Amino acid sequence: MAQPQRQQQMQVAQQLQEQVQELEEQKEQINQLLTQLHETKDAIETIGNAEPDETVLLPLGSGAYVHARIEDPEAVLAPLGNGVLAEEPPETAIERLDGREDEAEDALEEVDAELEELQQELEQVVSQMQQQQAQAQGRGQGGGPPGGPQGAG
Prior knowledge:
Distance between the termini: 30 Å
Structural class: alpha+beta
Mean pLDDT: 89
Strand content: 15-25%
CATH class of the domain at 16-120: Mainly Alpha
Low-confidence stretches: none
Radius of gyration: 29 Å
CATH topology of the domain at 16-120: Helix Hairpins
Number of strands: 4
Oligomer: single chain
Order of helices and strands: HEEEEH
Helix content: 55-70%
């Protein structure tokens, strides 16, 4: 195979590998977001199921919990976006988080589909490079033109 063509294929393979890595990082971030959303929903459900002035265990994250006295189980501060919080009933906060969870799951599906396409494309490029390298090695070991001397001695 001509050296420029091989070099070009190697660059394409490297670019594809970088794109795959970026998508895998995006996928990890989305999975972390989904975990956080699930934990937040669980905490809000705990609050919503509490009686006024009841003490409950609330998760802080990373397996840590705190005892918390719930003054008003019908009011949670939930994010609206851009750092803005709104006091709302637990059910409303959970519905809002369900919407964010749906968006994150849709994004995860898109990333998975794109990741699969890129991985297939990368496999094709690598396979072509391997085939061309094997052909080049086969020609190099064949010894010369047909009918010519091959290591006569």
